[in-house]
Amino acid sequence: MTRKRPNIIVVQADQMAAQALGAYGDQAAKTPNIDALADEGAVFDRAYCNTPLCAPSRASMMTGRLPSAIGCYDNGDDFAASEPTFAHRLRASGYHTALIGRMHFIGPDQQHGFEERLTTDVYPADLDMVPDWNRPLEERLQWYHDADAVFTAGVSKATVQQDFDDEVGFRTLRHLNDRVRANQAAGEDLPFLMVTSFIHPHDPYEPPREHWDRFADDGIADPAHPEVPDPEQDPHSHRLRAMSGFDVREPGIDEVRRARRAYYAAVSYIDDHVGRIRERVEELGLADDTVIVVTSDHGDMLGEKGLWYKMSPYEQSSRVPMIVHGPEHLVPKGRFANTVCLLDLMPTLLELSGAPGASEQDGQSLLETARRESAGEAAPEDRDIVIEYLAEGTLRPQLTMVRGHLKYILCPGDPEQLFDLSVDPAELQNRAAEPEYAETVRKMRAALGARYDLPELEAEVLESQASRRLVAEALQKGRVNPWDFQPEPEQRYVRGDFWGALGYGKISDPSR
Across the strands, what pairs with 386? Predict the structure, then answer.
């Protein structure tokens, strides 16, 4: 029997940390819809982004290749139109592909393989956020993350982010209707890929009143370890604090609690959207043929180690949720401990869709990972996950390798760091200089050395920064032509063929 190729829905939130979801053990979280998908699907307990920053993380995810491999280093780096994405590959194999919401594409190509893009983005698509590793940290750029988001966190009646995500949610539900309409009209059952991407719970932390009030009587835990690490051991964290202004202004416990409550409320707001998407899928009779993936581009430190936002290799910043829900013949059920990463999304979508594989990709299918772990054929230490950080807040390339329960961090000019998560899950004790870990450090350093020529990578990043600063400055002279995506006006309702338009728009309810 030949089975229908499944529809695929990828729901991505921005800066949604795994540790802030009930599905990942948080007792304060109010995420029943995401938790239900997790209970019925596959949950990857140790999923990492491949760079804890929006634009390069998403470009990397869509291509299945590390940021350095595609030359997409930071939030001001253009994503080449010639790089094949999972949208290109599924579209070429016969899928209808649509992007709704945020993807932080930088450059003139704002679709990267999607046949339709139904909304613009929140942030500009131009080369506005180019870091400068030659610039002193105290000379802050206008677009840096700012500590003010923690001090001003709280309820808002309306914000840019709420307006955006409400539109994303509405257009997502209507697009699901439209896919059913299109198939009815064509008399076929064309599968679709829909990527729905929200900006919440990204800072500023400004949720609606309804979601804020859900946490009125529930205690959200304070940061377990708010103390800032020793600057001699961890200069990167101190650079991040200085870049955002936390070195001169430290939030008090009341401000920390308010910001964390606002963040959890924003996550609950995303959960409501997930619930509405799943409900519409079921109402339209698509559930038996649809796979839903829930993930994020990176996490949020939320005050741990005196840090907020992302940009850090620590767990709260670099771990993401990875939940796959679908028919049992497609998605292995259960919880999986082996490490995975966002690079794995493309090979997973290729396997689900039957699209041809990619010759150059750094990830592996999540479904294959789950099968091999269930069969006892793979253990966490059998695979290395690499996290790159090549953007603002560092002055040299920072590379992190996760091997099983070990995390090794290398940045020229900074002390090496090694954390043994099996005995130190909070990453409080740097083991890099301890004799019993000397061989581990040597092996992991050698593994990174085999992958990277660090002086060459540093030179490439610096050259890219300089080139993009020149181009960005030039493009602001004279007539400015932004790259921001402008959706085309939609042709819907009754136009031209009166009865044909009414017939096309109707999706009958056979239960009446």
Answer: 401
At residue 494, the pLDDT reads 67
Whole-angstrom distance, CA of residue 315 vs CA of residue 426:
8
The pTM score is: 0.95
Q: What is the model's pLDDT at position 136? A: 87
Q: Which residue, among 26, 150, 47, has the nearest Cα to 12 in the 3D structure?
A: 47
**Type of residue at 316:** Q
Burial (CB count <10 Å: 0-12, 13-18, 19+), residue 511:
exposed
A 10 A CB-CB count for 123 gives 18
Q: Give the whole-angstrom CA distance, residue 388 versus residue 318.
A: 10
Considering the domain boundaries, does residue 511 fall inside one? no
Taking the C-alpha atoms of residue 364 and residue 187, their distance in angstroms, rounded to an integer, is 35
Domain count, the chain: 1
- Look up 325 and say whether it is catalytic: no
Does residue 2 belong to any structural domain of this protein? no
pLDDT < 70 regions, the chain: 1-3, 358-359, 491, 493-495, 498-499, 501-502, 511-512
Is 411 an annotated catalytic residue? no
Asked whether residue 370 is domain-assigned, the answer is yes
Q: What is the CATH number of the domain that holds 419?
A: 3.40.720.10
> Of the residues 54, 72, 341, 411, which is catalytic?
54
Across the beta sheet with 334-336, the strand order is 116-117, 96-101, 192-201, 7-14, 290-296, 322-325, 42-44, 334-336
HSE of 428 in the Cβ direction (CA atoms, 13 Å)?
A: 9
Of the candidates 88, 104, 200, 273, the residue annotated as catalytic is 104
Amino acid at 143: W
Structural domain for 342, as ranges? 7-505
**Cα(397)–Cα(387) distance, integer angstroms:** 11
| Identity of the residue numbered 215 | F
Taking the CA atoms of 57, 63, 67 and 72 in sequence, report the sign of the dihedral they define. Answer: negative
The answer to whether residue 1 is domain-embedded is: no
Q: Is the dihedral of CA 231, 235, 236, 242 positive or negative?
A: positive
User: What's the DSSP call for residue 295?
Assistant: E
Is residue 221 within 8 A of residue 28, CB to CB? The reply is: yes
Task: Give the pair of three-digit tokens for residue 297.
Answer: 């581009």
